[in-house]
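Tokens for chain A. Residues wanted.
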């Protein structure tokens, strides 16, 4: 039930995949799918990057996308919401007052939904034969292989970023 995804193959040695599942709409997923690949791939990795450096790049990509989303998107929405609420006379019930102005009430409800939106994410990087998986939220990635008996099995490994 993903809202957005991407896949890039930069070379035989570098591939990047991402899946984003938005909550309270797809806006955060749409934003993340546009920003995350650039945060990871543009000048961040070199031929000689160590495992620790790759983990750091993935971790920083998640943090950077979140920070920019809050600054650019949520900040603007909060400013709009504050401006709308400031027009209501002090002491009056917000929704009762706005019930007389359906467009403003609809806008406030929309802004409330937008400022509470977010996305879970799974990002998979294949870098020179190694698989790196990073996630945030309730989404997970499973590595599955078909066994000698033809049965699909979930692989087990744990690497914390």
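Reply:
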């Amino acid at each position: 039930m993903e809202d957005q995804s991407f896949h890039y193959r930069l070379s035989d040695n570098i591939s990047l995949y991402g899946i984003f599942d938005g909550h309270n709409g797809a806006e955060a997923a749409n934003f993340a799918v546009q920003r995350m690949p650039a945060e990871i791939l543009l000048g961040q990795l070199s031929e000689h990057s160590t495992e620790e450096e790759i983990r750091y790049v993935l971790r920083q990509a998640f943090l950077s996308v979140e920070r920019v989303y809050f600054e650019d998107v949520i900040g603007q929405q909060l400013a709009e919401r504050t401006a709308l609420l400031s027009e209501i006379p002090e002491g009056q019930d917000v929704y009762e007052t706005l019930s007389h102005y359906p467009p403003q009430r609809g806008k406030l409800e929309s802004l409330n939904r937008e400022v509470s939106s977010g996305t879970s994410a799974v990002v998979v990087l294949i870098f020179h034969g190694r698989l790196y998986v990073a996630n945030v939220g309730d989404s997970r990635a499973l590595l599955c292989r078909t066994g000698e008996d033809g049965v699909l099995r979930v692989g087990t490994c744990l690497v914390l970023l």
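Strands lie at 4-11, 14-23, 118-127, 130-136, 144-146, 152-154. The first strand starts at residue 4 and ends at 11.
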